[in-house]
Amino acid sequence: MTAFALRGLLGRKLRTVLTAIAIVLGVATVSGTYVLTDSINNAFHSIFFETRQGSDVVVSGKSAFDLTGDSGVTAPSFNESLLQKVRALPDVAEADGSVNGQAQLIGKNGKAIVYGGAPNLGFSIARGESRFNPLQLVSGTWPKANEVVVDKSTASKEDIKVGQVIGVQALGPVERLRVSGIVKFGSVSTIGGATLSGFDLPTAQHLFGKPGKLDEIAVAADQGVSDPKLLGEIRSVLPAGTQARSAQAQSREDSKETDSFISFLQKFLLGFGGVALFVGSFVIANSLSITIAQRTREFATLRTLGASRGQVLRSIVLEALVMGILASVVGLFAGLALAKGLFSLFDAVGFTLPNNGLTLETRTIVVALLVGIVVTLLASLRPALRATRVPPIAAVREGATLPESRFARFRLPAAILLTVLGFGGLLAGLFVPDLGTGQILLYMLGGALLVFFGIALLSVRLVGPLAWTLGWPATKIGGAAGALARDNSRRNPQRTASTASALMIGLALVTLVSLLAAGIVSSFRGAVKDIWKNADYAITAQNNFNPIPIAASEAIAKTPGVVAVANVRAGEALAFGNKIAITGVDPPSQRMFNLDWKEGSPAVLGTLGDDGAFVDKDYAKSHHLTLGSPVPLTFANNTKELFTVKGIFDPPTGGSPFGRVTISDASFDRHVPEPQNLYSFVLMRGGQTAANEAALDRTLKDFPNAKAATRQKFIDNQISGLSSVLNILYVLLALSVVVSLFGIVNTLVLTVFERTREIGMLRAIGMTRRQVRRMIRHESVITALIGAAIGIALGIVLAVLLIARVDFIVLSVPVGQLVVFAIASIFVGIIAAIFPARRAARLNVLEALQYE
Question: Using one digit for the tens of pLDDT, what is the confidence trace for 258-285?
Answer without folding.
Answer: 777 788 777 877 787 777 777 777 777 7
